[in-house]
């Protein structure tokens, strides 16, 4: 499965949920599936995605917003593995992490990550998250749909092919405007 | 109550007055009494209203910046309690997230480098922290022995308001050192 195919599934099933996406090619490809107000692109905050998503998950817990969805990558998560420990420690029931694991830093020359040898799903499980491994589009659609009906914290460990989608447009946006757009979408839904 | 204990009490009470939605901390001996005070108040609140704990540890400072820094996107606001040698860890997160996205965040940090510090290595990161923060455009207020404990509390509370009013991270650096025999300066 290509990363953009996984992102299309996320876009399809998470159209009314806050989605926090990791920086560089992943955010660009998510935007390429169709930019939406419920997306927060982390334009250059390396390794921060699951931490930011955990903050959003804490904020939406107990509101009409059922889940905060994190789209992270193996390289990004490895830059801040402590985020998994905190996610497991705080255990927000609204947290759902979609880990797109291609075992390379695809945005920076496809240099291999440690995920080639380390099972990040196992790390997440050890931290207390419920983990499901997914390796094709159909099982992603089914599993993500099921997990969106269940309490978290959850991590879907999604195997995707290495590489970036060619000719994906850069996100030349003002982070202040972008963050305000996301906040304006989210806050009225929190009651 | 010693002067240090008065400072701890003032800072703790100021943070409680801010009614923070979350406080993430990275441990420090100098501000352990503040963390314990916040945790005790949090336990009492949870016992009273059954809500979730709002005061919790994190593994590193940048993680705290991501988590607590995200709260304003949902209309919430929080603080980080840490020591100043962690700003090296936190700087990329602070600049690329909270500064770049204009997200209010209060950070209260005790200083390590400087007068009275026993660890000869820690000066190397702590001494340049104020310049690092200034160069990064992060508003910083400093407290030391020349300020009364009441000043400490008032500054922390005002810094929280300042962060919200300016839509930016704001740092309060707290130097707990007192020169032996100097007596009360403030």
Descriptive report:
Chain A has helices at 3-13, 25-32, 49-60, 74-78, 82-90, 120-126, 137-147, 175-186, and strands at 19-21, 39-41, 68-73, 95-101, 104-105, 111-112, 130-134, 154-159. Chain A has 191 residues and is α/β, with parallel strands linked by helices. In chain A, the strands form 2 sheets. Chain A has a 6-stranded parallel beta sheet, with helices on both faces. In chain A, strands 5-6 form a two-stranded antiparallel ribbon. In chain A, α7 (137-147) links the parallel β7 and β8. Chain A is globular. Chain B is an alpha/beta fold and 186 residues long. Chain B has a 6-stranded parallel beta sheet, with helices on both faces. In chain B, β1, α2 and β2 (55-57) form a beta-alpha-beta unit. The longest helix of chain B is centred in the N-terminal third of the chain and has 18 residues, at 32-49. Chain B is globular. The model of chain B has no long low-confidence stretch (mean pLDDT 95). At the A-B interface, α3, α5 and α8 of A face α3 and α4 of B.
In short:
The complex is a heterodimer of chains A (191) and B (186). With 191 residues, chain A is α/β, with parallel strands linked by helices.
How big is the Rg of chain B? 16 Å
Largest sheet of chain B: 6 strands, parallel
What is the ordering of alpha helices and beta strands of chain A?
HEHEHEHHEEEHEHEH
Task: Work out the number of β strands of chain A.
Answer: 8
Instruction: Specify the biggest β-sheet of chain A.
Output: 6 strands, parallel
Quaternary structure classification: heterodimer
| Mean pLDDT across every amino acid position of chain A | 96
Order of strands, main sheet of chain A, comes to 2-1-3-4-8-7
Helix content of chain B: 40-55%
Indicate the structural class of chain B.
alpha/beta
- Overall form of chain B: globular
Number of distinct helices of chain B: 7
- Continuous helix count of chain A: 8
User: What would the principal axes of the Cα set say about the shape of chain A?
Assistant: globular
Strand element count of chain B: 6
Distance separating the two termini of chain B: 16 Å
**Largest interface summary:** A-B, 37 and 31 residues
Q: What percentage of the residues of chain B does DSSP assign to strands (E)?
A: 15-25%
- Neighbour order of strands in the largest sheet of chain B: 2-1-3-4-6-5
Run of helices and strands of chain B? HEHEHEHEHHEHE
């Amino acid at each position: 499965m290509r990363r953009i195919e996984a992102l299309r599934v996320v876009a399809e099933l998470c159209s009314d949920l806050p989605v926090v996406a990791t920086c560089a090619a992943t955010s660009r490809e998510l935007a390429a599936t169709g930019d939406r107000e419920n997306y927060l692109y982390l334009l250059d905050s390396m390794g921060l995605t699951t931490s930011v998503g955990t903050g959003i998950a804490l904020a939406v817990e107990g509101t009409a917003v059922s889940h905060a969805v994190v789209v992270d990558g193996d390289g990004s998560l490895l830059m801040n593995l402590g985020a998994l420990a905190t996610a497991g420690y705080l255990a927000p029931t609204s947290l759902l992490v979609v880990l797109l694991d291609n075992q390379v830093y695809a945005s920076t020359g496809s240099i291999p990550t440690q995920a080639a040898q380390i099972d990040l799903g196992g790390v997440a499980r050890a931290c207390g998250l419920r983990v499901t491994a997914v390796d094709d589009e159909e099982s992603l659609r089914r599993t993500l749909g099921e997990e969106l009906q269940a309490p978290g914290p959850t991590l879907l460990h999604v195997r995707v092919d290495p590489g970036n989608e060619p000719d994906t447009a850069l996100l030349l946006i003002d982070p202040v405007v972008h963050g305000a757009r996301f906040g304006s979408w989210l806050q009225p839904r929190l009651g | 109550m010693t002067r240090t204990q008065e400072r701890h009490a003032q800072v703790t009470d100021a943070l409680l007055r801010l009614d923070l939605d979350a406080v993430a901390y990275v441990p420090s001996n100098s501000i352990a009494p503040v963390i314990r005070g916040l945790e005790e108040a949090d336990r009492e609140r949870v016992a009273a209203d059954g809500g979730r704990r709002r005061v919790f540890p994190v593994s590193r400072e940048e993680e705290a910046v991501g988590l607590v820094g995200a709260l304003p996107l949902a209309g919430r606001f929080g603080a980080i309690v840490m020591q100043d040698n962690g700003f090296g860890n936190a700087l990329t997160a602070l600049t690329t997230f909270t500064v770049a996205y204009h997200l209010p965040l209060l950070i209260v940090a005790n200083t390590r480098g400087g007068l009275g510090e026993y660890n000869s290595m820690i000066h190397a990161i702590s001494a340049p922290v104020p310049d690092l923060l200034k160069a990064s455009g992060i508003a910083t207020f400093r407290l030391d022995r020349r300020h009364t404990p009441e000043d400490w509390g008032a500054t922390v509370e005002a810094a929280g308001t300042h962060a919200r009013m300016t839509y930016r991270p704001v740092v309060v650096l707290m130097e707990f050192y007192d020169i032996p025999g100097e007596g009360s300066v403030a």
